[in-house]
Amino acid sequence: MPGLETLALSVVAGRGARWETPAQSGWSHLLEHMVFKGAGSRTARGLVEAIEDQGGSINAATGYERTSFQVRALKGGLPLAVEVLSDLVLRPTLDADELVREIGIVGQEIAEATDTPDDRVFDLAQTTAFTGQSLGRPILGLLETIGAASRNDLAAFRGEIYAAQSLIISAAGAVDPDALLALAEAAFGSAASGPAGSLAPARFVGGAAAEVRRLEQAHLVLLLPGVGARDPDYFPFRIFAEALGGGMSSRLFQEAREKLGLAYNIDAYAESYADVGVLGVYAGAGASDASRTAQVVAEQVLALAGGPAAGELERAKAQLKAALFMARESPLARAEQAAGQLLLFDRLFSPAELAEAVDAVSPADLRRVAARMIEPGSAAAAVLGPKAAMKAPETFASALFA
Length: 402
Hints:
Blueprint: E1 6-13, H1 27-35, E2 38-39, E3 42-43, H2 44-52, E4 57-62, E5 67-74, H3 78-90, H4 96-115, H5 117-129, H6 143-147, H7 151-161, E6 167-173, H8 177-188, E7 207-212, E8 217-226, H9 234-245, H10 251-259, E9 263-272, E10 277-286, H11 290-305, H12 312-326, H13 331-345, H14 351-359, H15 363-374, E11 380-385, H16 392-401
Parallel strand pairs: 7-11
Antiparallel strand pairs: 1-5, 1-6, 2-3, 4-5, 8-10, 8-11, 9-10
Helix pairs in contact: 3-8, 9-12, 9-15, 10-11, 11-15, 11-16, 12-14
């Protein structure tokens, strides 16, 4: 519709599942659910109807290092969006009866993730990579830990996770900056500070996990230690993953799928937390092909570590820039990206700065970051599927570190 403008508002707490103790596993995600059961003067239904009556939508997401509450709305919807999100974050009802019901709902979510092979295998790999650490526990938590949370427990936990010093209010689209500042000061100015706290540095441990299931296909996740978001090698790391398995022209797609026909689905990704990261590969393959697929992944990692082929580096740069900038077409993506930059760097980066950083990556940079990933001699691998696929993690490690 001509002249129709939209906006997005994100209220992001820079704390998530990494801030949980073992006994609190899953509480960040449970709390995110619970605030929608009533906040301020509104019931659960009243919260969503208030936003949807004006054509907007409301959502939230819990990660290891942040919890995000989001509203997308038409122009003019900013005051209501700030009001509703401030109620969710600062004034949730946390009704005890609702908590009992929601623990059951999250329990179903945990069961669903366990039953879904390509969800379960990622949890297995994450736990193996970061054994004994908060990064190694599933964001959804465990039935026993979420079941132990009381109303008072969650109220106290909310004061820590959503403490004033961890909050970022970010908006994009049809928003007047002065109006946003005034609304944010009025709605969040009285937010209480919580304990400063600090995160223990994460450590990639590595190892292997295997779970036999009566399935037709095997699911593999293969991980190497990567770099954190603040690391100078962040962009070489991202580009390495892009060249390895970021698209249909990537090494893994062309070799494992197109040439050898081993995997019906294979891709690589770079996951960076504040202080550590992982290079990951997911593959879905026939059980009899799982070990050979793992070997091909190791071979392609080693080949790329020796340096990119002609045209490969520039193609990977173009793909990464497209991923970074096409997402910015969405106001919500711009708001979330800005919040993430402020949390990690206490500043914003222009698209030109990001493009310059990507363009500056050289073949030597790729070789250096590859050495950082491979030289520790540690990998995490998980396989889920038929018994015939269970040796894939061992094959991956042997081929990579022989």
